[in-house]
Design brief:
The two termini are 19 Å apart. Helix 1 packs parallel to helix 15 (300-322), helix 4 runs parallel beside helix 15 (300-322) and helix 11 runs antiparallel to helix 12 (255-279). It contains 17 helices and two strands. It has helices spanning 3-24, 45-54, 61-75, 81-110, 114-123, 134-147, 156-166, 168-177, 179-191, 201-215, 229-249, 255-279, 281-287, 291-297, 300-322, 328-354, 356-362; strands at residues 195-196, 199-200. The protein has 368 residues and is mainly alpha-helical. It is globular. Strands 1-2 form a two-stranded antiparallel ribbon. The protein has one domain (3-362).
């Protein structure tokens, strides 16, 4: 792999995960923002800014991470498929169960004090809709949440990625032998938000795209001649502005509105990947020459695993104490994710120093 391409992969993996905190850190009244969500509250600078950033500008991250994952997995074709699948279980599913347990433990600890317990209740993170203290659920309820409905809801990504890795031969066959039909089908699943247990259509298109780019030996490490910085950023930002206004303008959610927002989201995400990937080469080079930054990139997976449910609880704790101050929502949105990000980096560095062996298992061998 080209050295600069390797640097871009490491840079953008860290950036996408760091920005994930600002996607999950919004405090709109809509507790879960799907790409097609409407906002039933007054349009203000704060509400516009949060939706525009969390559910617009930063939505390029997951597609980019899936492209990187598909590309890297496709490079390893010389190794036996069974060996790679076994390895991915160790590097993805073992951390999944560990971080799911950690999320439960953090939630349980926060439930033990009246103030922090209130923050947990306000966050309402339980994927099964039952926000009772864990003591009232019993072991059966806790184990179910550990295995299939983690309070650390971000773990869906590595669970889906593991499934995509298992399906890799199908994706490779499709994009190399029947390229156009394969991408039409995967694109349809992407736009329609296809989802069944353990299989989300959102990432398949981009994971397969990463495979196709690698098999075509497409030179993604440098900006192509056809790329226009101005046009890609204008399309990316413009679509997200339109999408944000639509989310506030309409009160009734219809299939037409859902499809319109879904198409806008798909176009904006694709434009965002192109704009960001090819638009910051000089920035990538500058940061990857800084020791403090390359040191921080080692903790990407730890940040990913730890930030939820912690960020949701901290955000609601801010609201408990700062709710009567003006601009507390915007302040919370900017400050809480930043503090949690710094805390995650500090904890990762400390844990890797104290218990490197356990840290290696928790992160699937990443960060060394």
């Amino acid at each position: 792999m080209h050295r600069f391409l390797s640097q871009k992969f490491k840079f953008y993996t860290f950036i996408c995960i760091a920005l994930l905190l600002f996607v999950h850190g919004y405090n709109l009244q809509v507790t879960y923002l799907a790409p097609f969500s409407l906002v039933d509250e007054e349009l203000t600078f704060t509400t516009f800014f949060e939706y525009f950033v969390a559910n617009g500008l930063l939505r390029f991250r997951i597609p980019m991470l899936f492209i990187i994952s598909g590309y890297i997995f496709a490079i390893q074709d010389k190794r036996p498929y069974g060996e790679r699948a076994k390895r991915r279980f160790i590097t993805l599913m073992v951390p999944y169960f560990i971080w799911s347990a950690i999320g439960l433990a953090i939630t349980y600890l926060w439930q033990q004090h009246p103030v922090t317990s209130e923050a947990v209740q306000r966050a309402a993170l339980d994927q099964l809709g039952d926000n009772r203290p864990y003591e009232e659920m019993g072991w059966g309820g806790v184990i179910k949440r550990w295995l299939v409905a983690p309070v650390s809801f971000q773990l869906w990504f590595i669970r889906s990625l593991f499934v995509y890795n298992l399906m890799y031969p199908i994706f490779r066959w499709g994009v190399t032998k029947h390229t156009i039909p394969a991408f039409i089908i995967l694109g349809f699943l992407y736009i329609t938000f296809f989802q069944v247990p353990l299989l989300e259509g959102q990432g398949m298109f981009f994971f397969a795209l990463g495979i196709w780019l690698q098999k075509r030996s497409y030179p993604i490490e440098r900006r192509p001649e056809w790329h226009s910085h101005f046009l890609s950023w204008a399309v990316f930002i413009g679509i997200n502005i339109i999408k944000t206004f639509i989310a506030f303008e309409f009160d009734t959610f219809t299939d037409t509105i859902k499809m319109a927002l879904s198409v806008l989201y798909a176009c904006a995400s694709f434009a965002g990947v192109i704009a960001v990937w090819f638009g910051f080469d000089a920035v990538v080079q500058w940061f990857m020459e800084k020791r403090w930054f390359t040191w921080s990139t080692n903790f990407s997976f730890f940040i990913y695993g730890l930030h939820i449910p912690l960020l949701s609880f901290v955000t609601n704790l801010f609201f408990i104490y700062l709710g009567h101050y003006q601009l507390h929502r915007l302040f919370t949105y900017l400050v809480a994710p930043t503090l949690v990000l710094l805390f995650c980096i500090a904890m990762a560095a400390l844990f890797r120093w104290i218990a490197p062996g356990i840290y290696r298992v928790m992160t699937g061998g990443r960060g060394f």
